[in-house]
Amino acid sequence: MDFYPLYNSLRVALASCMIVFFTGIIAAWHVSKLPAMIRGVVDVILTLPLVLPPTVTGYFLLRLLGPRRLIGAWVMAHFGVRLSMSWYSAVFASVVVSFPLMYRTSRGAFESVSKNIIHSAKILGLSEAFTFRRIVVPCCKKGITAGAVLSFARALGEYGATSMIAGYIPGKTATISTTVYHLWRTGNDELALKWVLVNIAISFAVLIALNVIERGKS
Amino acid sequence: MSLCLDIRKKFPGFSLDVSLDVGDESIAILGASGSGKSLTLSCIAGIVKPDEGKIIIDGVTVFDSVKGVNLPPQKRKTGLMFQDYALFPNMTVEENIRVAGRNRESKIEAEELIRRFCLESVRNLLPSQISGGQKQRTALARTLLSRPKILMLDEPFSALDSHLRFQTERELSEVFREFHGTVILVSHSMEESYRLCGKIAVIHGGHVEISGAMDEVFSSPKTKHAAILTGCKNISRSQKIHDGKIYASDWNIELQCTDYHGDSEYVGIRSHRIIYGDGINSFTCRVIKVIENPFSFTVMLLANENAGSIFWEADKTLWREIESETVRISFPPENLLMLKE
């Protein structure tokens, strides 16, 4: 059994989890401070990938990152790097799809911090950045961790957008999910089952970790 | 140091229109819940932006809608202690206090405050692990360390058990006495306000109805709401009959009065200023209910059938001697409050 898909899946999920961790938190903090009207619109846009079919997300990604498209062509011309059909292409897909989970969970956590605490900090003369780093984030540690675990799990299970932008190239872009599909399609049922079990085992572990974190909340 | 305030802000169904001019003294803002007292504090601190007006703290304009000045809360040098104290839950007592320090000397100052407010034994505990009184002292120490020019306290006793209130009230009066600057106490308790502050502003429906020296406002509240908030339990609508005589329609009695103002629409009398026995404005009432308090009786009386009840606060020994179905009481003219709407 070639373990490349396991290694690649974990690599993609970790990388995307790390990106989403920071972007999600920062987006959540800034959105929670916006005026109600604008907040509603921005919120919808940022949450959209959660409800769109991953193939639709994949379509948009290809429109942007494909070798002859806007961003893809520009990066190709300036850095000679192809954004699609390589292992990190799957990271783009995972980031977009798992971002809403991180963003939503941390926004929920930020909004549960008492307004008086944030007001107190301001009146005491503490800067916005200090308040965020030293008071808001520590108060939301559990919510933020839960968001990170959820988005890691989502990135690990990503299939639709990944298969469109990264494709299935054994030893190069193959992830567990694309491997399962490929094996099943080519009639290699036995090996497919092995990968299915590997996937279930990882997801189980991740969700148990999530429950442990959430229990610590109360 | 001083505070000069003149602000307006509109909400659906509520509008705030408050003017205050306070010097180096302590003032109580007394009002029912929803009257705009906490909102006024939020405007001064810079958390809520008024629609229009001006706020000047110690000669510095921190808000001016005409000139477009609106300093952020960080630059206003105010201190506001919230009702729930708003301590940072992830920091220890000591960290909560020290975080407010702005320079190197503040470390020594923080140490002094921890000692002064008896927080040494809990300095390494989190806010969730300490008592209500300790939380309040931590919040107060933190606010004082930030060296505000105005010290504002929003219902400081509401989160405390009643037996703690009196003690913390004494501690607070010490803090008020030593504080160099303006102190604003927001409260709905007239007794706490009376004991702690020299001045008072009564706020109702977003407006300051009356403000002035504490004893003046209590002896002559001038408006119906100010009378209610300063503890007057007996208020009736009134009509002028002729000079020196009014008709109290809710009680269905006529009263002689000394200082009738042409525009008075209400007459009031505090329950402990009703006199037992004959005199000017005396009448016989039927006793409908007697409520025993720890140190007095509250006797509910009817001057006439189908009229509103009158509350009389009677001395314990006196009422034990009387205890009858009817009682003769009088409303001395000098004890009557002439009130506007």
Tell me what the structure shows.
The complex is a heterodimer of chains A (218) and B (341). Chain A has helices spanning 4-32, 36-51, 54-65, 70-79, 87-112, 115-123, 128-139, 141-156, 160-165, 176-185, 189-217. Chain A is mostly helical and 218 residues long. Chain A has one domain (4-217): MetI-like (MetI-like fold, Orthogonal Bundle), CATH 1.10.3720.10. Chain A is globular and about 65 Å long. By secondary structure, chain B is of the alpha+beta class. Chain B has helices at residues 37-45, 93-98, 105-116, 132-145, 162-178, 190-196, 214-219, 224-229, 316-322; strands spanning 3-11, 14-22, 26-30, 52-57, 60-64, 69-70, 78-81, 150-154, 182-187, 199-204, 207-213, 234-242, 245-248, 253-256, 266-269, 275-276, 282-292, 296-302, 310-315, 326-330, 337-339. In chain B, the strands form 4 sheets. Chain B has a 6-stranded mixed β-sheet, with helices on both faces. Chain B has a 5-stranded antiparallel β-sheet with strand order 2-1-4-5-6, with helices on one face. In chain B, strand 17 (282-292) and strand 18 form a beta hairpin. In chain B, helix 3 (105-116) packs antiparallel against helix 4. The two termini of chain B are 34 Å apart. At the A-B interface, helix 6 and helix 7 of A face strand 7 of B.
List keywords for this structure.
heterodimer, A: 218 residues, mainly alpha, MetI-like fold, 11 helices, globular, B: 341 residues, alpha+beta, Rossmann fold, 2 domains, 6-stranded mixed β-sheet, 9 helices, 21 strands, 25% helix
